[in-house]
């Protein structure tokens, strides 16, 4: 039976219960609830998780794109802080079930979508993660190619070097995946403090080149009216939320290893906003300084480092970028889709196999096109997929807190015919709510007069789907009476 620990706020699920009652189509060792022995992540691990995942190239480029788009440094910092405080709310809400029951995202979402229907949101999340995996691998390959260019300048114009570097970095990611989730925790604990030191070193290097903080942050806002600023601000805010919209769904994949609820809540509440604002400031300051130094905003740190002719400093900085990219790629873009693909066929697809699938799909999504400009990155990629994932988050939060009151029958999540069976394993109400949320969020792409709905895609999708789901489920609440 399930035994709840009052002191830690978690539920220990007896392995014997699941061994006797689970359906092999819904269960394998990677999807099973974590045991007490597996709950090894404390507050520091979650702080380190966010520092290691925030301190990487795409965060830098997320912040620098605001400067390239016309904001000054104060406007950019405010936008980033507000966006991350907003996304912290669904992050902590969805994290609760992972820490309480030790279950990963694809199992948790069975409660709302059904034992078979859970594959739909899991695949939406997985495909987005594959795109991110490809983007991070491409950036890592660029960093390696830039390092080679520092050491051997004659290779700078050789496309083959970039492609070999890209594939080499991809293989390195696959090796870490093969080593398992504990290798991720080791990487984060080691690299988080290292990345902080290296990022501050880059900041002070640019500070010296610009001649002080005054010139460094002197790039003015290019918005001369409140209306013009708001037209850029609101889509940018949606992009800030969309940046972590993926992890706000699959955060149970990490909190299932928490020693207690307090460990993950405190670690995340501190780590996410502090890490994002700190590292974003570095991106904002360096991009603003590039306007002073070079006369134009340089939004890519890899390109920026290439503008200086100091091989040792550039090489050291590129090594730091490479380590950061490896960390976030494994932590944010492999763990979740590996579990999601495993959920499709638990008997056939393990975590390792799911990681390999993620890697190959990441190659197929052509990340070099997704990162061709800051406009494609912000207004195409980030906002676009936030309209798909926001509705899933809304349904998960409404189901777990409003419909079930945080109570789940863990055993029934791993077998057919129980309270999460709905209609042949699919909850049609969740599918309708998801469709409503996605349609309203993305309709602005097809109807110009409704473009504002797309600019708020994550928010629109979240609230439309959550409200629709709650209303549809009012007459058929299925909270198991035996749930803890």
From TrEMBL:
Topology with respect to the bilayer: Multi-pass membrane protein
Keyword Membrane in record: yes
Record GO terms (molecular function): nucleobase transmembrane transporter activity
Transmembrane segments: 47-69, 75-93, 126-152, 158-178, 190-208, 228-249, 270-294, 314-336, 348-366, 378-403, 430-450, 456-476
Record key words, sorted: Membrane, Transmembrane, Transmembrane helix
UniProt xrefs under Pfam families: Transp_cyt_pur
InterPro entries reported in the protein's UniProt record: NCS1, Pur-cyt_permease, Uracil/uridine/allantoin_perm
Record keyword Amino-acid biosynthesis present: no
Localization: Membrane
Highest taxon of source: Bacteria
Broad class of the protein's primary localization: membrane
GO CC annotation terms, alphabetical: plasma membrane
Family: Belongs to the purine-cytosine permease (2.A.39) family.
Protein name: NCS1 family nucleobase:cation symporter-1
Source organism of this protein record: Tunturiibacter lichenicola
């Amino acid at each position: 039976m399930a035994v709840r620990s009052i002191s830690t706020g978690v539920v220990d699920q007896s392995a014997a219960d699941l061994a006797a009652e689970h359906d092999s189509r819904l269960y394998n060792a990677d999807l099973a609830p974590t045991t007490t022995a597996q709950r090894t992540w404390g507050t520091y691990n979650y702080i380190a998780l966010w520092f290691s995942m925030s301190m990487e190239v795409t965060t830098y480029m997320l912040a620098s794109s605001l400067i390239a788009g016309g904001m000054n440094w104060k406007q950019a910092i405010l936008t980033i802080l507000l966006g991350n405080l907003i996304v912290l709310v669904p992050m902590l809400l969805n994290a609760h079930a992972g820490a309480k029951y030790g279950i990963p995202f694809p199992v948790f979402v069975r409660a709302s979508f059904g034992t078979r229907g859970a594959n739909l949101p899991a695949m939406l999340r997985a495909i987005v993660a594959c795109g991110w995996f490809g983007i991070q691998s491409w950036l890592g390959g660029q960093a390696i190619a830039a390092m080679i260019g520092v050491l051997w300048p004659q290779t700078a114009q050789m496309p083959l070097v970039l492609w070999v570097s890209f594939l080499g970095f991809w293989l390195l990611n696959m090796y870490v995946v093969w080593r398992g989730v504990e290798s991720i925790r080791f990487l984060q604990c080691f690299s988080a403090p290292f990345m902080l030191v290296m990022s501050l070193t880059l900041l002070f290097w640019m500070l010296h080149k610009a001649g002080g903080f005054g010139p460094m942050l002197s790039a003015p806002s290019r918005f001369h009216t409140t209306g013009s600023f708001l037209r850029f601000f609101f889509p940018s805010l949606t992009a800030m939320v969309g940046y972590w919209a993926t992890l706000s769904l699959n955060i149970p994949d990490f909190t299932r290893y928490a020693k207690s609820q307090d460990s993950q809540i405190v670690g995340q509440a501190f780590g996410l906003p502090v890490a994002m604002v700190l590292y974003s400031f570095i991106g904002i300051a360096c991009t603003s300084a590039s306007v002073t130094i070079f006369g134009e905003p340089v939004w890519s740190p890899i390109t920026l480092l290439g503008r200086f002719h100091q091989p040792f400093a550039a090489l050291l900085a590129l090594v730091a970028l490479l380590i950061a990219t490896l960390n976030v790629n494994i932590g944010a873009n492999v763990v979740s889709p590996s579990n999601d693909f495993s959920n499709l066929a638990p008997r056939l697809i393990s975590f390792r196999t799911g990681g390999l699938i993620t890697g190959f799909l990441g190659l197929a999504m052509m990340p070099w096109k997704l990162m061709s400009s800051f406009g494609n990155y912000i207004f195409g990629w980030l906002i676009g997929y936030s309209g798909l994932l926001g509705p899933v988050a809304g349904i998960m939060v409404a189901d777990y807190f409003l419909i079930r009151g945080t109570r789940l029958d863990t055993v029934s999540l791993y077998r057919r015919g129980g309270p999460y069976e709905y209609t042949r394993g699919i909850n049609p109400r969740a599918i309708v709510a998801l469709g409503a949320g996605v349609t309203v969020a993305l309709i602005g792409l097809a109807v110009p007069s409704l473009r504002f709905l797309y600019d708020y895609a994550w928010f629109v999708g979240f609230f439309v789907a959550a409200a629709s789901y709650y209303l549809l489920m009012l007459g058929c609440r299925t909270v198991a009476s035996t749930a803890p």
